[in-house]
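Sample 1 of the test manifest.
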Amino acid sequence: MAGGAASGGTQGREYRAVALPLLLPAWLVIGIFMVLPVLLMGVYSFLTKEFRGGVIWDFTLAAYDQFFVYRGLFGDEPPTLEWTYITIFWRSIWQAGLATALCLAVGFPTAWFIATRPVRTRTMWLFLITVPYWVNLLIRTVSLKFLIRDNGPLNEGLMALGLIDGPLPLVNTNLAVQLGLFYSYLPFMVLPIYAAVERYDFALSEAAADLYAGRWTTLREIVLPAVRPGIVAGAILVFVPSLGAFLAPDLLGGAKTYMIGSLIDEQFRGSQGNWPFGAAAAMILMTLVLIALILYARAQGRGRPA
Amino acid sequence: MSAIEIAGVSKSYGAMRALDDVSLTIGGNAFFTLLGPSGCGKTTLLRCIAGFEEVSAGSIRLLGRDIAALAPNERPVNTVFQNYALFPHMTVAENVAFGLRMKGVPEARRRARAARMLEMVHLAELADRMPAQLSGGQQQRVALARALAPEPEVLLLDEPLSALDLKLRQAMRLELKQLQEETGITFVFVTHDQEEALTMSDRIAVMSHGRLQQVGTAREIYESPVNRFVADFIGETNVLPVLVEGVEGGRASVVLPGGARISCPAAGLGPGAHHLSIRPERIGIAAGGPLRATVERVVYLGTDLQLVTRLADGTAVQVRLQNSARTEVPAPGTAIALEPEEGAARLLAD
Ligand SMILES: Nc1ncnc2c1ncn2[C@@H]1O[C@H](COP(=O)(O)OP(=O)(O)O)[C@@H](O)[C@H]1O
Ligand SMILES: [Mg+2]
């Protein structure tokens, strides 16, 4: 085996010699478009705000202080925990979680349906799923608003059918924001689950049925563990952008559905803005997401036998 | 009581008839083999018994009970799948205990039984491994243990040995046969390998193009094939074009290529052009034999020698000789006379 190990070593070295230059463009892209902006945000969050937007290069913790510490309306009370932004964060997490659950509930059967069609029609179904997403997200969100407003087709239709007496108040509710998020990110749930189901070996379902498992037991014990990577990928792809979304909450929601995305968005707009505070909020959000992902990855690692 | 009665079962996929009016009775406590070339409908028949496919016509009875209305998970039948289909996220022991858990067997009892099944297939020490960490042969044993653990009335095996290498395959043949005898469970074993079928089975059903050709013991199938397909498919044989001149008292007078006449059982055939089967090991060199042939080649097979000879009309005839010091081996080019042993020549239906 010594010879084999040695040749494996040289192969590894040759591989690295070829792979490094080939990987360089990828590293550059990641560096310029991902690492650099995050570093920039990190630095900005520690700078002093300039009155009409922008920053002054004076390092301070003021942005984080504003986020976490409350000193009364006039800043003269003993410091306590500031709940305003934590509440917005909590609401955003809750909204994003709900949107993810909704996307999963609809996305899983959809993905299952597509993956179990004959090979030739699958491409068509996938294509149909992506068609609405050729239209800009803003336009789609606005059209959703038209659809569900008091004198929109949904309410008018329901009233014409005599199912309701007056229009359902949908716009400016949590439900509307949920619909918006669901509509914005559904394909991000469908596609990874589709990929996982397509790889699933249906002989396993037959084996389970052969061994006296019912349909639901088979789904829970055999199918779900097998397609779980797809579900996790889909959940992350829906949850993370939902958490930072601002179009759906802005256009479809109201003051009660104010989310992190809108909070950050406002800090970088016009003279009301506060760049360091927006940067700090973004950094806190990113840290939370990272911690959640790391905890999840660790839990995965433990669950798997050596 | 018979374990399985299959009556007039057909199965069509669109215009394709995968099973065509198959009727078959499989006795209890038997090693029963479905044998046939790839695509003849063996898997389809197994899947109909297991409940994964609905029959288009006919009925299947299990221990006297019609099972048409039962879903796969309600049939007291377990399957060893061709690619094993082990649950990849469960340990070997969890795989083996799965069927027992689904049947509601308490944990302590299913642990004990899973351990016993793993011992039976010599895998006790691998109970905590994941399937991906096993070799092909080991996976095959786990699949076997998993299917046997719930004590099914019938075990269905779909070419379970085909993914193994030759040595392992041969060892597993004996083990499977032994397992069947130990457990007393009826095995329905599918294979396209006639040697496998001959060495393991109590009874064999030969299939071709969705139809049943012949059912019988290994000996019956080998020595008394009912038609040309069975004779050709099982073992090696010489098929000669012959003319049946007349039939009297169940025996036919047959004109061989070259004009010599012999007499053999009529096998229900009337006068006319037919085919005659003679196994290579049941034909010998004999001065004055009815078949005149020229030796073309001598093939060395270890324990045996195979003579490739040709009749005047061009028909090839294989002759198998034992490789012993006393055997006189004719050189290529020699003219010889061949004689079938008594009872070796069999007329075949087409
Ligand atoms: N799901 C199916 N759809 C269409 N044709 C099928 C299907 N399953 C099997 N067949 C056809 O039925 C015939 C018998 O197949 P199968 O039972 O798998 O053969 P075997 O197991 O003997 O190799 C084959 O010609 C195969 O192509
Ligand atoms: Mg098959």
